[in-house]
Amino acid sequence: MKSGFVNIFGKPNAGKSTLLNLVVGEKLAIVTPKVQTTRHRIKGIVSTNDFQIIFSDTPGIIEPKYKLHEKMMAAVKSAEEDADVKLLVADITDTPEEVEEIFASLKGKTPVIVVVNKIDLAPDKVQDTINFFKDKGYKHVLPVSCIAGSGITELMELIVELLPEGHPFYEGDNLTDLPVRFFVGEIIREKIFLLYEEEVPYHTTVIVQEFKEKSTLVKIRADIIVQRETQKGILLGKRGSKIKELGTLARKEIEEFIGNKVFLELFVKVRPKWRDNEAHLREYGYN
Predict the structure, then answer these.
(1) What's domain 180-283's architecture?
(2) Deepest in the core among 27, 34, 35, 209, taking most CB within 10 A?
(3) In what order do the strands lie in the sheet with 112-117?
């Protein structure tokens, strides 16, 4: 049996999270058009009689500007160290030289697959991009379109081929090792990224304070943390209209995710400079 960790790396917005969701067959990682949406290392487990693959989506590789960024890059480093296969995801619309600068730091003895994503956006660049990475010494370069689902079968076949023989790390049919309340918080945070403009989503995190399963529904209470009072006002909106819209969107997706009715309460709290506060970061799950 083949078994191992396949960890996904790349610049923000390369399509790493979409790739994870696609190969696992379930929405585990939130996806938005804004960069730096992914903050945690998120695992998705794919098991068959012949193999078990533990995929990990990591935060997009950036130059840290504050402690939250440092925590995110520590998650990338951890994923780099335990990978059996590395997927280096490149957006075909990016400059390949800039992408390769990042990829060069991820090279090592671990097998590497360069995944050239979004080929539907620039079909005329596909072969040149493949040739560029092969000329740089990357043996395995595969073009894919996560949106169209093309190239994924070939990618999975190559991953299985490169994985070592071993025993499964997880029993049963679990898709992830993270608790449901983590994904509830991520769904709420995704809606914040989609609904609010400018810098507000980047100054925001979500903490699920209560997740109580009752006979007819699940009661969820979550705190949305921001850095300034003005951001709290933006989140709430005029007479609370914006937070109601956020709650409605999040509740609907949470109900689909857990398969049950949900009563969702959202509260906005101000914690100045939480992104640079070690104690706050630990409290909010950024270990």
Answers:
(1) 2-Layer Sandwich (3.30)
(2) 27
(3) 42-47, 51-57, 2-10, 85-91, 112-117, 140-143
